[in-house]
Design a protein that fits this description.
single chain, alpha/beta, 11 helices, 31% helix, binds threonylcarbamoyladenylate, binds magnesium ion
């Protein structure tokens, strides 16, 4: 079992030795390694059972590091970084020579982000290299938002989880790239599209995986999935009738619902707040998945702001 600890120096030591450490961020926990240590990076793919064609995000602590990692950085990228970093925004940029191909899955672009978490920023500052870190979950499973989630996933092969408490945003970063001058969103995430558009004007959203045409290769349809069957619905009552003979877990927006006679009800927010709901989403799915239910019925959110991102994750979980 991995050690769960708040010891940043110990995390640094392990990373300096070429080992992997799970790190907290404000979105989800990441499974980190030195971007220049091939063994450490290969081990990330192996631990996660992630295919090598799916590139990793490079984590930095200072905007100046951008110039060491990327070239031809568009003005809008600088604007977005200045507005949202440290924070839940990943920029896809043309990569600079010297960034290992294994990180970028042989693409000529690289994903970069500065996470907004004090312990991880302190750790990054203490290192001589950036950290590559995908979400610290086995491929296609629910992302971890607590140190305990990570430790449970990786009982063998991971020495340490740096404990930074529960993730405050709770869903992954929004991934933004550039096609000519156009700003494109490849993954909906913890920063709403509306927030991005306030800074750079209208964007294009390309977050759906089409065969052979996935720009962010991780955007496979099935993702973030619990083992329990899950459906996403607008109308709870109709679904309850349909599955009345089953052990049902309900995942609802807020507490303003009449009491349903089901095995378990989980609320994402007391008052239907989108940010609070996003923060609680994966922990709720982890919890429901451990209850031996026949089915999880999740209530669809309104498709605005973070509701959009939450619906995206829930619909991938249903595949
Ligand atoms: O919030 C987050 O972004 C978390 C925390 C740990 O930082 N990380 C995360 O990493 O979600 P991961 O690997 O689970 O998802 C990264 C996504 C994948 O879908 C990957 O395909 C895409 O980013 N990606 C990475 N580099 C890319 C690139 N050069 N071009 C296109 N997509 C890229
Ligand atoms: Mg992931």
């Amino acid at each position: 079992m991995a050690l769960i600890s708040t010891d940043i120096l110990r995390a640094k030591d392990l990373l300096d030795q070429g080992k992997n450490v799970a790190i907290p961020t404000e979105t989800v926990y990441g499974l980190a390694g030195n971007i220049f240590n091939e063994k450490a990076i290969k081990n990330i793919f192996e631990l996660k059972k992630r295919p090598l064609f799916n590139p990793l995000i490079v984590h930095i602590h200072d905007r100046k590091q951008l110039e060491n990692i990327a070239i031809e950085i568009p003005e809008n990228a600088h604007k977005l970084a200045a507005t949202f970093w440290p924070g839940s925004l990943t920029l896809i940029l043309k990569k600079k020579e010297g960034i290992p191909d294994i990180i970028t899955a042989n693409k000529d672009t690289v994903g970069i982000r500065m996470p907004n978490h004090d312990a991880t920023l302190e750790l990054l500052k203490s290192l001589d290299y950036p950290l590559a870190a995908p979400s610290a979950n086995p491929y296609t499973q629910i992302s971890p938002t607590t140190a305990q989630h990570v430790a449970t996933y990786f009982e063998d092969g991971l020495e340490m989880v740096l404990d930074g408490g529960p993730c405050t945003n709770g869903i992954e970063s929004t991934i933004v790239g550039f096609e000519n001058e156009q700003v494109v969103i490849y993954r909906l995430g913890a920063i709403a599209v509306e927030e991005i558009e306030k800074i750079v004007g209208p964007v294009i959203i390309k977050n759906n995986h089409k065969k052979g045409a996935a720009i962010a290769p991780g955007m496979v349809k099935k993702h973030y999935a619990p083992r329990t069957k899950i459906i996403l619905v607008n109308d709870i009552d109709t679904s309850l009738l349909q599955y009345s003979s089953k052990q049902i877990g309900l995942l609802l927006h807020n507490e303003n619902h009449s009491s349903y006679k089901v095995a378990h009800v989980e609320y994402l927010s007391r008052i239907g707040d989108f940010k609070e709901s996003a923060a609680n989403l994966y922990a709720a799915l982890h919890k429901l998945d451990q209850m031996n239910l026949d089915i999880i019925i999740a209530q669809k959110f309104k498709n605005t702001d973070l509701g959009n991102s939450i619906n995206d994750r829930l619909s991938r979980a249903t595949q």
